[in-house]
Amino acid sequence: MIxxxxxxxxxxxxxxxxxxxxxxxxxxxxxxxxKLGWQLAVHSYTFQRFNIFDAIDMTKALGVKYMSISGSxxxxxxxxxxxxxxxxxxRARIDDKLHADGFGNFVNCGVVQLPADxxxxxxxxxxxxxxxxxxxxxxxxxxALDTVEKLCKEYNIKVAIHDHPKGxxxxxxxxxxxxxxxxxxxxxxxxxxxxxxxxxxLDPVECLKKLDGHVICLHFKDLNKYxxxxxxxxxxxxxxxxxxxxxxxxxxxxxxxxxxxYEYHWDNSSPEIAQCVKFFNKTCDELVAEK
Length: 291
What we know:
This protein is an alpha/beta fold. Helices cover 44% and strands 15% of the residues. It contains eleven helices and ten strands. The strands form two sheets. The chain has an eight-stranded parallel sheet with strand order 2-1-10-9-8-7-6-5. Helix 6 (145-155) links the parallel strand 6 and strand 7. Helix 5 (118-131) runs parallel beside helix 6. The protein starts with a helix and ends with a helix.
């Protein structure tokens, strides 16, 4: 049984999304993003208080064509499951919903654990292969990097190293990511969580410049201020220089996914995400128009 409070949250969120639907469908022309080789995706962690099926519906209502999936998901009720441990039947249920709503495969999955124990990491790669996921987002320990590289090559699956903030991850600074991938397969690179750089006091545009040629995907964000207690705001309204980051990624000829991981107003973030979608598409139009 779904608790009454959760039912109310779901109904409220879906109602908001449906209200946004007509606006989103008429204002999310992605032709410019397509020309740039960019995909705007909603990361399911954004809707972590809802089950994955409702998260898919909420993403569709925003007019976004792509999704990435978190390292854990709710299927029914409130229990979370580790995504790489989902059974074939559970994955099939999610696939049925994805396809019914017009989505293809998830563009990436993570953050997932990739330990030095090859057998344990292999299970995660095998899961990704079965589900048609080409990018795993992870923060492997340094003693796991050789194992990760071996499995990347064997499965032809990319690993994008994610950066949690200073004090929470060895990868908080892009220099650490560069050191981890130095001399390794190009299947290993960065998942640039630009919001965590701001929380760590780093300039996200300068961080992207350091990672030139090594960005596989992004958890794209704009924050209200620098510092560990900063929170998400609609793109283009915060301190992160969202347009400047997109300009830099165009300069790098980046091709890949901008994943919306909106970690604020958890029960009612769709109106603000809709503003992010509008900003993204408007900025893509401007970037394509530039000579």
